[in-house]
């Protein structure tokens, strides 16, 4: 079958779909380290995992609305300055299962773990694009190119057997501070097949769908990518739109991730002893907006206390060079008195003072994306 050569995976992952392989760790695994180990990093695929056997023959082509078209080998890419960027990648479908409980949505079900925080190592896209004569901070090329399209080598049914693809604006691609990478390392090791070997795009602060894995070519184009995942998926619709009245062209492709958080030390319905309990989880926002604070309630949102940030662990391989964590999650914790039959709630606030929406009903959308509503935990039978 097409899936005869899938890589081995950690048995602890919860499989949401086997072919294509979609899996997430248990939520409790997320808060055990600031950097998510590769084995426990969620895996989100739309087709079989491609196999690049001969790395010496692998290359990425750059073409489109530019005067110079080139092919880059892995050696060419490794020759460029290497950056390590710690960034959280989150699938737009994270927490979809909870949204589906309000009203059914279409898509792979996910609990709260369709995200992970990794240190990605690779070349900056802004440096790569200079090789074809595009200057830093350009918003248009001399031939009218305004978007940078990433095309993969994998094949998926949504593209009718064609490759997975996506694009970002040229302005973001050529901005060194946007930290868009062509990454060949994940957590200090060669990126593995599941996560895009030999080369993937990492677009920090943006929904995972734009971070194209197994990169094959880069095209400089006039309009944004017309692929399925840009035009017929990963768009945010209001709750009034359903499958019988949807008009995809009325909305833009979703890019930045809104502010999000989840409690990871408890199940959605859980039983704990009365008294003090440690509540921990993650909070993250898109667009480089860091997390300002996380509020926790034990009475369903009537009163709140502020959670603490956990210390970042010292990871030796990120110690070389300037580091920034504006793209990364924060892990939070609070030790609180839990009253009988408590309802524990988390909500995060980002650096632009954006706050998570209270109710999932208000942000329900037919594709079940961006469920960033308050995370609620129901405690039963506290005694
Ligand atoms: N790139 C390719 N080529 N094929 C894919 O199916 N899935 C996207 C993105 N890049 C995908 C892809 C989606 S929807 C997400 S959320 C992330 O990859 C998941 O990355 P991960 O599997 O490394 O966690
Ligand atoms: Mo995704």
Textual characterization of the structure:
This protein is mainly β and 383 residues long. It has two domains: 14-250, Oxidoreductase, molybdopterin-binding domain (Sulfite Oxidase, Chain A, domain 2, Alpha-Beta Complex); 260-379, Immunoglobulin-like. The chain contains six helices and 22 strands. The chain has helices spanning 27-30, 74-79, 96-100, 125-130, 170-173, 228-231; strands at 14-17, 22-24, 43-44, 59-64, 70-73, 82-90, 115-124, 147-155, 163-169, 181-186, 189-190, 200-202, 215-221, 260-263, 269-270, 275-284, 291-297, 305-306, 308-309, 330-338, 343-350, 375-379. The radius of gyration is 21 Å and the shape is globular. 47% of the residues are buried. Ligand MTE is lined by residues 41-46, 89, 91, 152, 154, 164, 195, 208-209, 211-214. It comes from Triticum turgidum subsp. durum. One of its GO terms (cellular component) is mitochondrion. Pathway: Sulfur metabolism; Energy metabolism; sulfur metabolism.
CATH class of the largest domain: Alpha Beta
Strand content: 25-35%
> What hetero molecules are in the model?
ligand MTE, molybdenum atom
Give the helix level as a range of percent.
under 10%
Going by CATH, the architecture of the largest domain would be Alpha-Beta Complex
Could you give the distance between the termini? 53 Å
Reported for the largest beta sheet, the result is: 5 strands, mixed
Question: Quick one: CATH superfamily of the largest domain?
Answer: Oxidoreductase, molybdopterin-binding domain
Count every helix, treating DSSP H or I runs of 4 or more residues as helices. 6
Number of strands: 22
What count of structural domains? Answer: 2
| Sheet/helix structural class | mainly beta
